[in-house]
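WARN no homologs supplied; continuing
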Amino acid sequence: MNQSFSNEPEAHDPSIQALIALARPSRRIVAFTGAGISTESGIPDYRGPGGVWQTGQIPTISDFRTNPKTRRAYWDGRRSRYPELAAKEPNRGHLALTALQRAGRVGEIITQNIDGLHQKAGSDPATVIELHGSSHRVSCLACGRVWPAATIHDRLLAGEVEPDCEICGGMLRGATILFGESLPLDALRSATSAATTCDLMLVVGSSLVVNPAAKLPVLARGGGASLAIVNRTPTPLDGVADVVVRSDAGPTLSAVAEALGRGALAQPA
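OK structure emitted
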């Protein structure tokens, strides 16, 4: 069933109308999403209330590798955390971006998120560039073998305290980027290519302070692309953006999809 949002008050906000006007003539829009697009799905913003910056529980790869207590605590916590994350559903922001992709208005979605909600909303996984990895995969730190997270979760439920690699016996952990690690080279190359060839970069829900990911909108701007930022709080790039919308992602992107996507908002696959 299609949904219409044209009567929502947000759709008539001048900044949203300016975003629609900026996007309308664009032929190659690339979206860049951060934690703010997923807060409406009940996932805490990394730097917001309940996020690890507030709790002080900031993981590092060095601590994980060298501290057995850290690894045991990680796997113990994952027993409850992963099912909670896997149960989260995409919100209107994710669905609107999928609708814009299906309408041919948005190409790649570069995301800092690890929740998989863009794919769950129906976006083709081949178009979603996960800069910080995914919680829905588990990888071996030694040999690089990758498993679906659900497979390793079954081992946890069966009683394993700290599952190891069935191939080489190495340490396992969720295939996400921790502090002290470099971004996956293939993902960074794909994101850089998308950023330098787009004509509009649409930043949604990112504070734009975590590098090197935060440099991608700068690359886009330097290549001649327009820049639009949708975020509830100020970012360091607001001053160089063509349009800044200080609002939630869901209603903002829904209004854009309604205007540019012929009103056909996506439903989860």
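The first helix runs from residue 14 to 23.
OK
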